Structures are given as structure tokens and as C-alpha cells.
Write the C-alpha cells for this entry.
Amino acid sequence: MQAILGTIIIYARDIPKTVAFYRDYFGFESTGEVVEGLVELRAIHGGANVLVHQAAKSVKLGQVGVKLSFDVQDVTQFVQTAQAHGLIFGTIHQANGYHFANAKDPDHNSISISSRAFRITLSD
């Protein structure tokens, strides 16, 4: 039996703000319509879709149990473009053949951008 990760659920205090964040900075599409308590964000360029769910007051947001990592070819360029539109990433780190940088979404959930998926390895 196969299982394919197709959807990630993000709990948010302010659903429209969170939807706008992922739409504006990461290219998701959404009508913004709340259906069954959720707003769907479609990954139009591939990858998992996201459902934004209203967080209960008792939910503690911003923990590092899960981090969303977005594949980008040019981390520096993405950081510069995002900064011009108001999203500030931390330091760009160099790892084993790739770069990455971290930020937070409006609910303080950890996100990162990484060129790891595009790295060239010795076996390539």
C-alpha cells in the first residue's frame, strides 16, 4: 500500500492573513473561500497542497515540530525578492552542495527555502 503526502494542514489565528502569506510569497492559488472550516491553497507548480484551518485559542502555535521547506533553485534571489515584498529571511546558510534560509509565517510556524533538491552531487 502506498501513501503520498498530498496535503499539509496549517493552523492559523488569522486565516486570510495566512492564506495571503502563502499565496503571495510561495505562489499558491486560493479562492479564499472557507469550506468545512478550511481554506485550500493549491500548489500550482507541484508539491503538496495546504489547508489552512482556524486555530482554537488553546492551540499553541509556532512550535518547531514541523517545518515547511520550499524547493527553490536560487536561494539568494528568492530571499532578495521576498525581502522587497516584506518577508525577511535569516542568514543564508551553505550546506553540502546547497543553500538554505529560514523564516516564520504569520503564525510563527517555521518555514525554509532550500536549493537542496537542485544540488549537483558527485554521482550526477
